Amino acid sequence: RAKQQGRNIFHVFDSRFDRELQAREEQRRRFQRAITDNELRLHYQPQVDMLDGRVIGLEALVRWQHPERGLLPPGAFLPLIEGSSLDDRLGEWVLEAALQQLEAWGQEGVNLPINVNISPSHLLSEDFVERLTLMLSRHPEVPVTRLKLEILESTALSDLPAALETMRRCQELGIDFAIDDFGTGYSSLTHMRQLPVDLIKIDQSFVRDMLDDPGDLAIVESVIFMANRFKRPMLAEGVETIEHARRLLALGCTQAQGYGIAKPMPSNDLPAWLSEWSERHDWTALAMQVMP
Ligand code: C2E
Ligand code: MG
Ligand code: MG
Ligand code: MG
């Protein structure tokens, strides 16, 4: 009887497992169709220098405009495709869309760089640099330095020699790297020294709560201290209020990104935001209030 029962349990388990696999496959096919049917969008979140209020760049953040479910954030679909071939396909779509946007903005006289998030498997894929070079060559009017790449610490961690080689070759093309979500991985100290990155982005979770949580504040302070020691520029994510901004400036971090400055927006909303921003004197005059 026990044996019989055991077999049944396996049976139930097997078919549930099958169903889950099938559902996943179906979802992936649906996402693949989202790419070909042009349902993906890029939203852009400004990055500013708090010393003078200058806008220094924009981070491209992908969204899925789903016909039934509405606008989906990356958290709703990235886990589904992580590690599959769709991951590279999404990455290529995002790079191409960012280059097209840079081209369009160039014609309108908006000359801000775009930061694109690159997934670990995409960066470490065999022909990443070749394909990127090809894409860049299709947009000769876009200065290469206007494209910047954001990678996670864990990306480099999974295959350091390969990551370093790819980064070196991209930098030869003129492309800067930012290390994203800094502080959430481990052995951050070593990476700060080893990785040829041009910007360190302090993870939003620490910044967001730093005004109330002494532990988070300690991490933010330590990252700022280390980045200054290693002479690396840094940017704080998750700057939700002007109080965050004041505190960060006092600690020695001048670049910021967060809801307090702007939420990610469609490219069409950018011109209006840019002119609004230049009128926000509370933010643009921050440095004079904080610095002696
Ligand atoms: P990330 O690269 O660290 O991007 C910052 C995330 O923080 C964005 O979430 C942004 O909307 C959110 N954020 C910005 N400021 C604030 C703030 O002040 N408060 C709070 N609470 N949140 C803030 P989003 O757009 O949902 O993206 C989540 C993550 O998905 C990104 O984190 C990035 O790792 C990934 N992602 C987004 N777009 C792409 C993409 O095109 N390719 C890849 N591979 N990953 C992407
Ligand atoms: Mg990012
Ligand atoms: Mg981040
Ligand atoms: Mg993140």
UniProtKB/TrEMBL annotation:
Record field: transmembrane: none
Domain EAL intervals: 24-278
Entry protein name: EAL domain-containing protein
